[in-house]
Amino acid sequence: MTAHIGFPGGGTGHLRASMWSSSPLRIRAQAIVDRGTLTVSNSSFRICGRFTVVLDGRRRRERFDSAASYVHQLRAFATTVRREPTNLTSSHSVITMSLIEDVHSAAGPPLPA
Q1: Structural domain spans, the chain
Q2: What is the DSSP string of 2-51?
Q3: Rounded CA gap, 68 and 30, in Å?
Q4: CA 110 to CA 54: how far, in whole Å?
Q5: How far is it, in rounded angstroms, from Cα 32 to Cα 19?
Q6: Percent helix / strand / coil, the chain, rounded to 5
Q7: Confidence band for 19, pLDDT divided at 50, 70 and 90
Q8: How far apart are CA 19 and CA 98, in angstroms?
């Protein structure tokens, strides 16, 4: 399944997913702005998660927390339950799920097994 996504303000996105593929698993997100790029590679690989920032021609690489994604989700849930400040709202979750549903709908019905 392949999806091309347009965002308000002109940003675009592209994703490809397959349960069976001859391509190796590659997870990458990239933001391109006037002064540089931000690239996140292999965000689901707990030992390889990293991002690269190129700003004004200078490159910097950073590794990020290697906890499994569900650990981050649990932390976010606990933060919300404790009514601590967070930068996410329930509307963020609704938007994310709507986007996922749009991709599934556009892909059509699953192929028979």
Answers
A1: 24-107
A2: EEEEE-TTS-EEEEE--SS-SSPP--EEEEEETTEEEEEE-TT-TTT-EE
A3: 21
A4: 40
A5: 29
A6: 25, 30, 40
A7: low
A8: 21
* Residue matched to tokens 């991709």: 103
Residue whose token pair is 């930068």? 87
Distance separating alpha carbons of residues 106 and 74, to the nearest angstrom: 30
Q: Strands 28-33, 12-16: parallel, antiparallel or unpaired by DSSP?
A: unpaired
> What is the C-alpha to C-alpha distance for residues 69 and 95, in angstroms, rounded to an integer?
19
Question: Per residue in 36-78, pLDDT tens?
Answer: 888 877 655 555 667 888 999 999 988 877 676 667 777 877 8
In terms of Cβ atoms closer than 10 Å to its own Cβ (0-12, 13-18, 19+), residue 70 is exposed
Residue with tokens 């059509």: 108
